Amino acid sequence: MAASDLSRLIAAAADTIAAHADELTALDQAIGDGDHGLNMKRGFEAVRAEADTFAVKPLPEALKAIGTKLVMTVGGASGPLFGTLFMALGKEISAEPDRAGLTAAFGKAIEAVAARGKSQTGQKTMLDVLQPVHEALAEGKTAAEIVAVADRAAQATVPMKALRGRASFLGERSIGHMDAGARSTALLVRAVAETIER
Ligand code: ADP
Ligand code: MG
Ligand code: MG
């Protein structure tokens, strides 16, 4: 991937997190501790600050370095999980991946997140967006379709009962609110899909 493409991806991801930080915080206030927007903004601004260093690396190295930076800066439960997602993606992907290569690497990266979080789909977490997005990729869906799948999947966490993370402490009271990590994942999917399309 060209350095300019990776730079645009980093900027798009950081922009959408910054633009939605208050919304992510509000979601986490309802059923968590209200720091998800701040956590994600801190992490993605740290990545943006070093975008020039990341963008010149081969894609696998860039993704690993971004994941490491996210682990160090996001904090909370989501930091190590998003960090694992990017690090594992970097470990599995090739420098110039085709659709099949990206799909396979993304699948492995999701497995790494699930292992790290001791979690699976249906527990009202970021995995409830990651998994359907992986399926959409595997089915050959277009970028616009994948964005719609991600948005619907985040929405589908509203009626779920949280079984992982802080929201799980609320039991039944976690029902009726969107999971913050599912929402931030859908935002990142949109940023990546729309940037790649352009
Ligand atoms: P914290 O809960 O430590 O304050 P954040 O608010 O930044 O961390 O992130 C919370 C998000 O992390 C949740 O909305 C959920 O999507 C995700 N999450 C938490 N625990 C897990 C887990 N075990 N597996 C997968 N995702 C998780
Ligand atoms: Mg939180
Ligand atoms: Mg916290």
Automatic annotation (TrEMBL):
Q: Recorded GO terms, molecular function?
A: glycerone kinase activity
Check the record and name the InterPro entries matching this protein.
Answer: DhaK_L_YcgS, DhaL_dom, DhaL_dom_sf, Dihydroxyacetone_Kinase
GO (cellular component) term, any one: cytosol
Specify the DhaL domain's residue ranges.
Answer: 4-194
Q: Name one Pfam family in it.
A: Dak2
> PROSITE patterns, alphabetically?
DHAL (PS51480)
Any single GO BP term: glycerol catabolic process
Q: Which residues form the signal peptide?
A: none
Keywords on record: Kinase, Transferase
**Which NCBIfam families does the record match to this protein?**
dha_L_ycgS
Q: What is this protein called?
A: Dihydroxyacetone kinase, L subunit
- What organism does the UniProt record list as the source? Mesorhizobium amorphae CCNWGS0123
